Amino acid sequence: MKIKCLDQGSVEVMNSTCDGDLLVVNAARCSFDRQHEALDDTTDKKLINYLAKHDHVLPFRHPVCTLRIHAPLFVLRQLGKHQVGFSWSEVSRRYITTFPQFHRPKEWRKNADNVKQGSSEEILDPDIDIKDAHDTVHRYACAAYEDMLDAGVCPEQARMVLPQSMFTTTVTTGSLLGWFHMYKLRNEGHTQKETQEYAKAVGDIMIKLFPISWEALCEHSL
Prior knowledge:
By secondary structure, this protein is an alpha+beta fold. The protein is 41% helix and 16% strand.
């Protein structure tokens, strides 16, 4: 399962817990030394909703999912603020020197009146000459990067001239609860829209992998 994000980004499932909803209820029933071999659509769904509603979240930490996330640096750093319940591995430009990809927005948002909102819903006039300046920065950055490499500068230092719009890739493993916390916070209205797009992609994946648990968490915890 792979969902496209922005112009060149994506979120892709690499691995996940099979029967994750069943694992949630069996983790919850462990206190009474009980276990179900198969998910009961009535009693188990009721239990999962009870757990989510009353904030008994420990059982939701047991299912896990590994995603391959291809995103610009400025987006990934927002997602990477969520550390509890996650393990991250990322492409390292200490070791690779391939030509970088850059995010090019289709439109530019105006500044918000309240700085905490980040941006407004209003779009800048497309005739305003921003794209050329944006592309020029990329050209100069790439030229400087390649000149430094050609001069013998090590990749781990040469990479410092590459801008935050550069795409990178992570393999990220998180618990069901961890992914939900990330989704909940990064899908709020004041969060940067580019980051929201990735959070929504995560949500679209989780509802397919853990349908009962994800629906219960969203219903009772948002």
